[in-house]
Write a structure and sequence with these properties.
It contains six helices and nine strands; from the N terminus they run H-E-E-H-E-H-E-H-E-E-H-E-H-E-E. It has 203 residues and is α/β, with parallel strands linked by helices. It has a single domain, classed as Vaccinia Virus protein VP39 (Rossmann fold). The protein has a seven-stranded mixed beta sheet with strand order 5-4-3-6-7-9-8, sandwiched between helices. A hairpin with a 3-residue loop joins strand 8 and strand 9. It starts with 7 loop residues before the first helix and ends in a 5-residue tail after the last strand.
Amino acid sequence: MKHAAPDFALLERWREDRTIQFDFRGLHLTLNSTWGLFSPERIDDGSLLLLEHTEVTEDEHILDLGCGYGILGLHLGQRAPRGRVLMVDKDFVAIEYAHKNIARNGLSHVEAQLSNGLQHIDQTRTFDLIACNLPAKASKEQHYLFLADCKKHLNANGRLVIVAITGLRQFIARTSTEIFGNYEKVKQSSTYTVSCSRKQSSF
């Protein structure tokens, strides 16, 4: 069956920002997104699972690695009002929308910048928590680089919390154990697994 191409009016509506109202744990965010970013019309199930099973204290320093339009960093930032949050992504459109969402929600202790993984952030900066919705299609090499760089940028006893498709669970368990010396499966659904690894020394 042949489908008609969308008309001009529909195309223009598609160019408009998507708006997501997110209420979780008694906190509210209004988020803008756009087509071309990951999960532009709703918060994806992996991010929801990570946020549900990640605890933070109000003064933690947090990194959202691969932030997209900012759901992890912004919500964790709401829960850590006396801390600092850095959100990074290699996509300039994602960072543009992350900046919009920081301003829209008045979170002055949250910032965002372009970075390929952790390559372009201040190399002396360290965090208590790194949160990552790990892209399923990233290469094995990229996953190893992510994990090794995360360990470098964690404070002693700092933790890396990852959500990834459950099909990657065994790979993440193996590589996390190789790099951190530990791995904990926090929560597993039929689709996603949340895991945590801790940096056990200052090295």
